[in-house]
Amino acid sequence: MTETTVNADPAELAKFSELAHRWWDPESEFRPLHQINPLRLEWIQSCQPLAGKNILDVGCGGGILSDAMALKGARVLGIDLASKALRVAQLHALEAQTANVEYREVSVEALAAQRPGTFDGVTCMEMLEHVPDPASVVQACARLVKPGGWVFFSTINRNPKSFLFAIVGAEYMLNLLPRGTHEYLKFIRPSELAGYARIAGLQLMHTRGVEYNPITRRYFLSGNTSVNYMLATQRA
């Protein structure tokens, strides 16, 4: 990435901006995010207790995870390039009177140039599969975290099963997500993401899968990373 290039797809930003006003409606298109948020929050906490920590949430959207981490006692900065989603996040923080959370419209690469080694932890959830250069995001996240700090990623595996479950099933059969939310070729295999992390100086510590039961309509964590998965990494 060059300094003048923004690692973002305008069509992706427009897609999420159109839905921004529905971000905090738990029965909206963002219902899956609301349902998995307690699961990923607990998992993050199990790796790195959040109280008193400076945390960066990359691709924060409407602030669902940022807000939750602040309520656990972290000082949170959420960043995104979707202006409408950020305004929704800021408004929610004001209405809910959530302390210790702020939001900025800035790319992770630009912030890494401004504030390297600043944060105790970095989260980058459901974002890598929406950018042109995910390796650049991973590199920037690694630059932003302090030595010994944790960086958490979540994304979607790339294989026939993930195409069937994450696109055909979730978008067209179960209507869990708006059609066109994901592009199969942008999905990232765990080995690829682990490679990006290793090149960036991050050590892979833990891996978890996120699964959905269509009968109970609930998400749960497992060891199965064939579709949705999360990686916990630590900077040396």
Describe this structure in words.
It contains eight helices and eight strands; from the N terminus they run ααβαβαβαβαβααβββ. The chain has an eight-stranded mixed beta sheet with strand order 3-2-1-4-5-8-6-7. With about 240 residues, the protein is an alpha/beta fold. Strand 6 and strand 7 form a beta hairpin. It has helices at about 10-20, 30-45, 65-70, 85-95, 110-115, 135-145, 160-175, 190-200; strands at about 55-60, 75-80, 100-105, 120-125, 145-155, 200-215, 220, 230-235. The two termini are about 25 Å apart. The radius of gyration is 16 Å and the shape is globular. The model has no long low-confidence stretch (mean pLDDT about 90). It has one domain: 3-Layer(aba) Sandwich (Rossmann fold).
Summarize the SSE layout with pairings.
Blueprint: H1 10-18, H2 31-47, E1 54-58, H3 64-71, E2 75-80, H4 83-96, E3 101-105, H5 108-114, E4 119-125, H6 134-144, E5 145-156, H7 160-173, H8 190-199, E6 202-213, E7 218-222, E8 228-235
Helix pairs in contact: 2-3, 5-6, 6-8
